[in-house]
Design a protein that fits this description.
Elements: H1 13-25, H2 35-48, E1 52-58, E2 62-69, E3 75-77, H3 82-89, E4 93-95, H4 104-107, H5 110-113, E5 118-125, E6 131-139, H6 148-174, H7 177-189, H8 195-203, E7 207-216, E8 222-233, E9 237-239, H9 245-251, H10 254-275, E10 283-287, H11 290-293, H12 298-309, E11 316-320, H13 322-325, H14 329-342, E12 345-351, H15 357-363, E13 368-371, H16 373-376, H17 383-398, E14 402-405, H18 411-420, E15 424-425, E16 434-435, H19 436-444, H20 455-464
Helix pairs in contact: 2-6, 2-15, 6-17, 10-12, 12-14, 19-20
């Protein structure tokens, strides 16, 4: 980097005003440090072997530290800071050896105060690209081996934080009356179904469960199943959950419906195990609603179902999203701790779509992260989406969690995920949701291989609805 590149250009007042407005819109300044971001700073520091890592945001006069790893820092002056360098450059700033830039003595105090001989800083951006802060790592020794790949990884980790900021801003905006009004109008205009329709469906046993396999991406073996409810209406046919679950949550029927799903799932697990002892290693996962977490008796109910059906707790998985945990965090923590004591698997679904998702990795004892399909569907869009998924995979490994990629629908997504080292996946490319009867037949067949044919493989393809051929090297 040339000395001239370190000169900070004057900022236009209009640009700075817009930047500050974007910063205040996310509501992150002057709030307590959040453990959510500690997962990133710890991962960054460990990955690069850095002495310190910080996530910081800058207002008019200060650089405020949201999370740090290593040297404790609360706040730094904004003037002539690393942030100003990143802002002036509108991108990353890397100084492999501070001693080779004597102008830093007068221009930049932060590295000297931190005793840093090396630093790298990448921007944290708003939803429309404004630089709000930076993700920075420091080292007490010079680091001449810094590579473009290193910079890409650091930027991808910053991208995860920026993604959380975007969703945080959306969440803040959604609390406004104007954003709620369309939902109210939509609910008022809904003609079908009614609460009485749902109650009748429950009484007449019109609900059914379909199961979507989760597979090992290397061997194509089924390692788990996700139970998905459907409404088998006598006149309207098979109705997807998004058409009736929101109404069930509004009127309280989600509790008896959710209890039915848990009970039916446990009974089906017992049936599969009785048919073939090899199925005892299979885990079936159930989605839990926010209302179920408000019931402190949930763990007792699941314990009773396990005892009644005689299945092992490790055969049952419970999936929860950030939105299901938010309404009553205190009660949710207690319920999840009790579920963890039972030995059931706990999965954080739709990871990355909520602004506090990282925090839940510290607050709750999850076993599995499920990468939201919105990240998977953009894998082919360029390097940044690829690096974001890579970072989530690294985060899962660092925390000792399995990671499942959701929504795999194309051969390219499948190949990219395998190249990134993702072990498990779920999506229409691999297997569609299917009836319990079809799953039973599927479990009796050998795993599908891309290089094998014959009647059993044709049957596997027909049951899964999977692609006939995923290409060279797609199976062992």
């Amino acid at each position: 980097m040339s000395h001239a590149a370190l000169k900070i250009d004057p900022r236009e007042s209009q640009r700075e005003t817009a930047r500050l407005a974007a910063l205040h819109a996310i509501g992150i300044l002057d709030t307590p440090p959040e453990p959510a971001y500690d997962a990133i700073t710890r991962l960054v520091a460990n990955y690069f072997g850095a002495d310190s890592a910080v996530i910081a945001f800058a207002d008019e006069s200060r650089v405020w530290i949201k999370s740090f790893w290593g040297l404790h820092i609360d706040e730094l002056p904004r003037r002539n800071s690393i942030f100003d360098m990143v802002l002036a450059r509108d991108g990353p700033v890397v100084i492999p050896d501070v001693s080779k830039f004597p102008e830093l003595d007068g221009l930049l105090l932060s590295p000297r105060l931190l005793g840093a001989a090396f630093f790298a800083s990448v921007p944290l951006r708003s939803f429309d690209g404004k630089i709000l802060g930076g993700l920075t790592i420091f080292g007490r020794k010079p680091r001449q081996e810094w590579t473009p790949d290193d910079l890409h990884i650091l930027e991808s980790m910053a991208g995860v934080v920026s993604g959380q900021l975007k969703l945080r801003r959306t969440s803040n905006a959604s609390n406004g009356e104007s954003s709620r009004q369309p939902r109210v109008m939509e609910a008022a205009g809904r003609k079908w179904p009614h609460k009485s329709d749902l109650r009748r469906a429950l009484e007449q046993r019109q609900f059914v469960l379909h199961y979507q396999p989760v597979t090992n991406l290397s061997t194509r073996r089924i390692v788990a199943l996700e139970a998905l409810i459907r409404w088998k209406h006598p006149q309207r046919g098979l109705i997807p959950p998004m058409d009736f679950i929101p109404l069930a949550e509004e009127n309280g029927l989600i509790l008896p419906i959710g209890d039915w799903v848990l009970s039916e799932t446990c009974k089906q697990i017992r049936k599969w195990c009785s048919e073939d002892a090899r199925n005892s290693s299979l885990r079936v996962c159930v989605n839990l609603s926010a209302s179920q977490f408000s019931c402190e008796g949930l763990a007792d109910r699941i314990a009773a179902l396990l005892a009644e059906t005689g299945i092992s707790s490790c055969q049952l998985g419970l999936e929860m999203t950030e939105s299901s945990l938010i309404p009553n965090m205190g009660a949710a923590k207690k319920v999840v701790r009790n579920l963890h004591k039972l030995g059931v698997s706990l999965l954080l679904d739709d990871f990355g779509t909520g602004f506090s998702s990282l925090n839940y990795l510290h607050s709750f004892p999850f076993d599995v992260l499920k990468i939201d399909q919105s990240f998977v569907c953009r894998l082919s869009d360029g390097d940044q989406p690829l690096q974001i998924v890579r970072t989530i995979l690294e985060l899962g490994r660092a925390l000792g969690m399995d990671v499942v990629a959701e929504g795999i629908e194309t051969r390219e997504q499948y190949r990219l995920l395998r190249r990134l080292g993702c072990r498990f996946g779920q999506g229409l490319l691999l297997a569609r949701p299917m009836s319990a009867e079809d799953v039973t037949q599927l479990l009796r067949l050998p795993p599908r291989r891309a290089d094998c044919h014959g009647e059993s493989q044709s049957r596997w393809d027909a049951l899964c609805g999977a692609w006939r051929n995923l290409g060279p090297g797609s199976a062992p």
